[in-house]
């Protein structure tokens, strides 16, 4: 109920238009981001009050304690009276005590927020959905692990989560330090080589959100993004079930040619398509490429034109990315695109 | 002539004595004289001017980055140039501008404010300047040669390690750090020794000007913080060098990537206070002068400085809240980060109390001081938010932090610095800056600064991470970024007006006289600009603001030798006269040592063989330096004790 006026106040204060959108800490879609937003609001109002008080006591003397022209000319120096200095001391000490008290309250509130953030980890016990994320330059490998290996799912730059249930993320770094951040759902957690870190979050509002690497990780740090889809449990299970299947067989002649192009080119050095001989794990798994909303670590929409541009000259879109330029004849390219767009 | 006594005689315009002092203290002419200068005023100003040159260069890089970010998917700078630019911008602003400019202000002002004729070890100061200069040339030369650092000013491993930053870019950064920190350490030693042993008689601890206190406390922080980053960056170099190959930070060989972050931030958070505390010293000087009264709560402010220095070493983990750390540990660092607000708050309350109890004379330096409070406070309050683990997890490494740190560093340091430059410019130049132009530049800077950095708070909350060279049009960050870029243009215009005013005023400004602001501290008791020997008769003091409160017949020091560069050494606590000391003069060896040490440190970038060769060269230079001794200015043996002179303590 109170979220709306608060939001307006932010906008009012910042004097800026504010549709915050799918990658914003100001639009929480789950309990973690929601609690942080509440703490942020509390801090904001306290800090605003303090700022106005100090600003006032800075501006008032400019208005009321000016030197007269004569004083300024002669450069007279004031000797403060003992009595008035005593009053000032009382005010200064009072302000200091107030500062300490406010800080103490802020510590307590922060501690309580931290505890409630941590409480998500203890809900649902061991039964929690666990997703393994591996950050690498400059994309995210996403694995839904299952005790039965054939039921495990590997995808890239795309995460689906069921609504209303806590999800555990197990974070690994392949090369350098990255940071996992979905502003609408929770704060960051670093992925550090040699460490396994975990974070818990929960989505309550259905929708599509964006995440982005928040720790500088080199050349294409700017284009290391991913899409999060929060959907009802049923839809989520359907999606997971579909992802578990091997790639669909090519139907048309063009698609069949496309598969042959894929298998006979350098594509197979890095990518895998389950159900075909392509098994490399250097780059993203392409088994269900056509089902993903975006490509190139969520920096381009997954449309035919963008896909073609990405295959032919990834270096133009993401200079420094590990995907090399490819030389395909127009026929080869069209067949390859037909095949890849068939991989629902 | 050499009789050492303090008499109650006022300074006599003894032209013979003055001529002799001038002959003894003036440096040699020509290029060699310029190169070997040991005058703290000349070297201090050189530090300040060189720092401002690096400030301009790093600012230019920032302007280009702002242009790149003004539009989504802009092609002005690619990722390679953008990454080099933001890394060089941060490195230069922190290491080549903010710290050295404060050091330069200290070197220029501290001897004048404590009433002595030079710093204690002027040749060491000369050496420090060249280390700083060569470090700056190395960094910007590297950028021009396309080996500018591109892994951030913080050089997190493994990204800055041998595997992910091959080539020489990270080596250049880590070696340049060692060079510039040598300059900082040397400056800290100068200031501590000068303040501890060369204060005017009567300047007991409670009478030391607040700016000098700020410089002393900062210098101690430098002594403890800088070695840490030198060690860390040397470890990084060793990890990277082909024939050395240590594995301090290599997880695969038993090293630890997080170790670097702890070492770096253990240095880099105190670094913020190393930049901020001298700025509080400026404010504590400017506000009393233009409130026409002594600073309120002088002892409280000194204690605040010291408390800040101590707590400043205990907050570094708040840069690492997103790394795997135990919750209790994080809570401790939240508490310490909030605790440091209390001494800073104390200083702000004391400044406000001074303003309320004074009669304000609204001159341009006071504009900058008041603007500082208004702007810095925003940075301080967002700092309170960042100390909270939960909030930090959302805004860490976003543009919110970019906004915060610029409010703290530009608001907290550059605004006071510009005010201080306005304030002491008459002392350096002998002429007044133009009031109207100075106030105009203040307003333009104030508006431009807020327009540039305030929108970044919201950009961060709307999910924009730091250090990205571009962003997608649909991210919704475009208009705020454009606004920030327009603000940066206004900010640049303000700086051009500010420095244009100084350039003009140096030639055509009104003559200043010794004390144009009618201030109370000792630097205003001598001519503007001061002679090479600072004071014809060094003063003694009886209060914290001797020009306001001391009687006209307060004793001055007579009888210091004019044949050698003699200064009076006083006791640490009460500044009672102890003995006379002859300060060494010009020598070419400090410059040669700087060349040798720079060759050593920069040569390692190319090959480790530079280390032994450089050591031999340094040894030769040190040998030359010590062989020369202080000749021809040998310290006087068996100095006459004058501490019992009754004239001092009246």
Task: Please tell me about this protein's structure.
The complex is a heterodimer of chains A (344) and B (650). Chain A has 344 residues and is α+β, with helices and mostly antiparallel strands. Chain A contains nine helices and twelve strands. Chain A has a five-stranded mixed sheet with strand order 3-2-1-5-8. In chain A, strand 1 and strand 2 form a beta hairpin. In chain A, helix 2 packs antiparallel against helix 4 (82-122) and helix 6 packs across helix 9 (330-342). Chain B is mostly helical and 650 residues long. Chain B has 20 helices and four strands. Chain B has a two-stranded antiparallel sheet. Chain B has a two-stranded antiparallel sheet with strand order 3-4. In chain B, helix 5 (122-144) runs antiparallel to helix 6 (169-197). The two termini of chain B are 24 Å apart. The chains are: A alpha+beta (344), B mainly alpha (650). At the A-B interface, helix 2 and helix 4 of A face helix 4, helix 8, helix 10, helix 11 and helix 12 of B.
Please supply descriptive tags for the structure shown above.
heterodimer, A: 344 residues, alpha+beta, 5-stranded mixed β-sheet, 3-stranded mixed β-sheet, 9 helices, 17% strand, elongated, disordered N terminus, B: 650 residues, mainly alpha, two-stranded antiparallel ribbon, two-stranded antiparallel sheet, 20 helices, 4 strands, 63% helix, disordered C terminus
In whole angstroms, the N-to-C terminal distance of chain A is 41 Å
The radius of gyration over CA of chain A amounts to: 28 Å
- Largest pleated sheet of chain A: 5 strands, mixed
Proportion of β residues of chain A? 15-25%
Radius of gyration of chain B: 25 Å
SSE topology string of chain A = HHHHEEEEEEEEEEHHEEHHH
DSSP strand tally of chain B: 4
**Number of distinct helices of chain A:** 9
Total strands of chain A: the figure is: 12
Biggest interface goes to: A-B, 93 and 92 residues
Instruction: Record the strand order, biggest sheet of chain B.
Output: 1-2
Oligomerization state of this entry? Answer: heterodimer
Poorly predicted regions of chain A are: 1-6, 10-18
Q: Write down the overall mean pLDDT of chain A.
A: 91
Net shape of chain B: globular
> What's the rounded overall pLDDT mean of chain B?
92
Largest sheet of chain B: 2 strands, antiparallel
């Amino acid at each position: 109920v109170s979220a709306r006026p608060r939001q307006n106040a932010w906008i009012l204060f910042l004097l800026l238009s504010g549709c915050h959108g799918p990658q914003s800490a100001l639009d929480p879609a789950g309990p973690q981001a929601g609690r942080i937003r509440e703490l942020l609001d509390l801090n904001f109002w306290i800090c605003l009050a303090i700022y106005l008080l100090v600003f006032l006591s800075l501006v008032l003397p400019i208005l009321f304690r000016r030197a007269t022209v004569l004083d300024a000319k002669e450069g007279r120096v004031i000797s403060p009276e003992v009595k008035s200095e005593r009053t000032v001391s009382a005010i200064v000490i009072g302000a200091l005590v107030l500062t300490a008290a406010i800080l103490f309250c802020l510590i307590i509130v922060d501690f309580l927020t931290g505890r409630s953030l941590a409480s998500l980890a203890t809900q649902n016990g061991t039964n929690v959905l666990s997703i393994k994320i591996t950050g690498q330059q400059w994309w995210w490998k996403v694995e839904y692990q299952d005790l039965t290996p054939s039921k495990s799912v590997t995808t890239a730059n795309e995460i689906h989560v069921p609504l209303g249930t806590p999800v555990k993320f197990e974070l690994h770094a392949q090369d350098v330090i990255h940071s996992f951040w979905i502003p609408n759902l929770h704060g960051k957690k670093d992925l550090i080589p040699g460490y396994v870190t975990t974070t818990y979050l929960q989505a309550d509002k259905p929708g599509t959100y964006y995440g982005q690497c928040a720790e500088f990780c080199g050349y294409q740090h700017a284009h290391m993004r991913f899409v999060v889809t929060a959907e009802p449990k049923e839809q989520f299970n359907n999606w997971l079930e579909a992802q578990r299947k091997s790639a669909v067989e090519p139907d048309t002649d063009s698609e069949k040619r496309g598969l042959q192009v894929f298998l006979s080119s350098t594509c197979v050095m890095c990518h895998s398509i389950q159900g075909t001989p392509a098994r490399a794990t250097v780059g993203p798994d392409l088994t269900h490429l056509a089902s993903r909303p975006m490509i190139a670590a969520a920096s381009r929409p997954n449309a035919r034109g963008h896909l073609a541009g990405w295959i032919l000259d990834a270096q133009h879109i993401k200079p420094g990315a590990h995907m090399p330029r490819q030389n395909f004849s127009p026929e080869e390219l069209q067949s390859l695109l037909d095949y890849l767009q068939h991989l629902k | 002539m050499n009789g050492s006594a303090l008499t109650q005689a006022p300074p006599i315009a003894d032209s013979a004595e003055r001529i002799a002092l001038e002959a003894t203290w003036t440096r040699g002419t020509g290029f060699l004289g310029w190169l070997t200068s040991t005058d703290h005023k000349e070297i201090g100003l050189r530090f300040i001017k060189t720092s401002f040159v690096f400030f301009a260069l790093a600012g230019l890089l920032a302007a280009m980055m702002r242009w790149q970010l003004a539009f989504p998917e802009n092609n002005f700078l690619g990722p390679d140039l953008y990454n080099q630019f933001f890394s060089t911008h941060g490195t230069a602003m922190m290491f080549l501008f903010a710290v050295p400019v404060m050091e330069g202000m200290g070197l220029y002002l501290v001897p004048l404010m404590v009433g002595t004729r030079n710093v204690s070890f002027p040749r060491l100061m000369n050496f420090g300047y060249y280390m700083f200069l060569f470090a700056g040339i190395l960094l910007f030369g590297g950028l021009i040669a396309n080996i500018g650092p591109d892994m951030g000013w913080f050089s997190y491993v493994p990204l800055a390690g041998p595997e992910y930053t091959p080539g020489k870019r990270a080596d250049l950064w880590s070696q340049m750090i060692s060079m510039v920190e040598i300059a900082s350490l040397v400056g800290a030693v100068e200031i501590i020794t000068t303040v501890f042993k060369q204060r005017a008689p009567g300047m007991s601890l409670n009478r030391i000007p607040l700016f000098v206190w700020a410089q002393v406390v900062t210098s101690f922080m430098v002594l403890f913080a800088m070695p840490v980053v030198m060690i860390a960056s040397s470890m990084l170099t060793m990890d990277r060098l082909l024939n050395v190959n240590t594995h301090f930070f290599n997880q695969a060989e038993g090293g630890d990537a997080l170790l670097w972050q702890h070492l770096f931030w253990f240095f880099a958070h105190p670094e913020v206070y190393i930049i901020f505390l001298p700025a509080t010293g400026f404010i504590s000087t400017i506000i009393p002068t233009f409130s026409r009264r002594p600073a309120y709560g002088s002892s409280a402010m000194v204690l605040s400085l010291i408390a800040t220095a101590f707590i400043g070493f205990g907050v570094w983990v708040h840069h690492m809240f997103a790394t795997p750390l135990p919750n209790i540990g994080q809570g401790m660092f939240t508490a310490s980060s909030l605790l440091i607000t209390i001494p800073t708050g104390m200083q702000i309350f004391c400044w406000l109390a001074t303003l309320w109890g004074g009669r304000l004379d609204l001159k341009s330096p006071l504009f900058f001081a008041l603007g500082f409070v208004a702007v810095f406070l925003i940075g301080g309050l967002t700092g309170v938010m960042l100390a909270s683990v939960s909030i930090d997890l959302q805004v860490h490494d976003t543009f919110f932090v970019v906004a915060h740190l610029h409010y703290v560093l530009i608001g907290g340091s550059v605004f006071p610095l510009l005010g201080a430059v306005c304030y002491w410019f008459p002392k350096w130049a002998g002429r007044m800056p133009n009031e109207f132009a100075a106030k105009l530049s203040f307003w333009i800077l104030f508006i431009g600064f807020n327009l540039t950095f305030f929108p970044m708070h919201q950009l961060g909350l709307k999910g924009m991470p730091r250090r990205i060279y571009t962003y997608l049009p649909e991210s919704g960050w475009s208009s705020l970024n454009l606004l920030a870029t327009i603000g940066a243009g206004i900010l640049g215009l303000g700086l051009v007006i500010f420095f244009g005013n100084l350039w003009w005023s140096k030639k055509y400004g009104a003559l200043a006289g010794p004390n144009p602001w009618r201030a109370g501290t000792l630097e205003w008791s001598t001519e503007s600009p001061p002679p090479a020997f600072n004071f014809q008769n060094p003063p003694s003091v009886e209060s914290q603001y001797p020009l306001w409160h001391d009687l006209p017949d307060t004793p001055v020091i007579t009888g210091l030798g004019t044949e050698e560069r003699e200064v009076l050494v006083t006791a640490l606590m009460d500044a009672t006269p102890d003995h006379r000391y002859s300060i060494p003069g010009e020598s070419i060896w400090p410059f040669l040592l700087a060349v040798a040490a720079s060759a050593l440190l920069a040569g390692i970038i190319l090959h480790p063989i530079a280390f032994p060769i450089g050591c031999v060269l340094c040894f030769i230079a040190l040998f030359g330096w010590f062989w020369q001794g202080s000749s021809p200015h040998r310290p006087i043996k068996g100095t006459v004790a004058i501490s019992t002179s009754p004239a001092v303590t009246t």
